[in-house]
Amino acid sequence: MRILLAEDDQIIADGLIRSLRQTGYAVDWAASGADADTALVTNAYDLVILDLGLPKLPGLDVLRRLRARNSPVPVLILTALDGINDRVKGLDLGADDYMAKPFELPELEARVRALTRRSSGTTPVIQCGALTFDQVGRCAQLHGVMLDLSARELGLLEILLARAGRLVSKDQLVDHLCGWGEEVSHNAIEVYVHRLRKKLETGGVRIATVRGLGYCLEKPQEERRD
Ligand code: CA
What's the gap in Å between 17 CA and the centre of ligand 1? Predict the structure, then answer.
C-alpha cells in the first residue's frame, strides 16, 4: 500500500510518516499543493491524506484537479477545527473522509485502514491456506499462531498475498514498500523475502523465486483453478 501525504506542517508530517511506515505502508511526502499535484499525476497511490491549507496550491484545488482526471483514489482530508465549510466543500469535491486537526493518531490510522480496505474491495482478512492476514489489525497468523513480522515483512506479505499465484517483480515490491527518500535495493528485497520465507516455510506456505523476474506466493493446491 502506497500513501501520498500532502501536509506542510513538518511536525505533523513526521509523526504521521513514522506511524504509517511502522504499520507497513509506503509513504511519500509532499509539503506543498503543487508537489502533491505533480506526485498524483506521475505516481499511483492507494490513498491520499490531504491537508487543505497547503502552500502553492490549496488542498481543495489539488482534490479538484485529481477528480477532474477521473482518479478514483480515496482521499482523506485534514482540516482545521473551524474549517467546516472547507470540509463540506472537500466532501462535495469527492473526498472520502475527513479529520479535523488536532487529531489522535490511532483514529487517523483506523480511518486509513477503513479507506484502503474499502478501495481494495477485499475483506479485512486475506486467507491463503494456513496463512491469514488481518488488514485491520496489521498482523498475520500461520496455523492460528501469530507471526512475528517486521513492518517491511508485513508490507511484503500483504503485496504477495494480494497477488497470490501471480508473479510480483522486484520493482513492483520496491514501489509498494518504499516512500520517497527511502533507498531500498533489490538486494534488500531479497533479504526481506529470505526472512519472510523462513517464517512461512514451516507452515507449508511457499514463496517461489521466478529467476530474474521476481516472486510468487504459491496458492495451496485446492485453491488453484488451473
Ligand atoms: Ca497546512
Answer: 16
